[in-house]
Design a protein that fits this description.
200 residues; alpha+beta; rod-shaped
Amino acid sequence: MKRFFVLLIGLACAAAQAQQAPCLKLHSAKLKDHVLRQGSTAVMELVFLSRGCYVFNGSPANRVWPALEIASEPGLTSRARGAGAANFDESTLAFGLLRAQEVRLDVDLQASPDLRVGEHKLTGVLHYQVIDERGNLSDQTLDLEKTFKVDVPKAPEGLMPPGPGFSDRHPVWAKVLLPFEIIALFPLWILAGLISGESC
């Protein structure tokens, strides 16, 4: 009998833990050009997918969007915008109730000119509501942490940095051609000496 109660308690705890798992998970986070440059802006596209549950999105006339609260970092300005949803439950669309299984958010990132070069983390908390089959709403949160890279600014058009020289690109040829260059220039050096000697 005691074993039966222990088994029931274990099943109840497992069910409670399964219910506490967030409905949404971060599926992808794409940064334009894969890097944020000092003194510039970029957009990070976040896509969240559900784990077999539905996120409440309001009605067509009154949309309800998840809110992303982003932690601040010196030299980095970030702002969430452009929320969207997809993969709606078609059984509730006829009643004007939107239940989505996919949420998209755009985050505008702006780096100061002196922001440290290297890896940075976008951290925050996503607040949203989950709706069950009976229409009951519950608040949930999802911790967000995404690493991205900060690099130096691009060189302006027309002011590209000089590329590697011939000897850097072809080190073997540079060593082979050096004796020929000396042989070719030696007569010119003698001729220049003769001409300068005649002028004296």
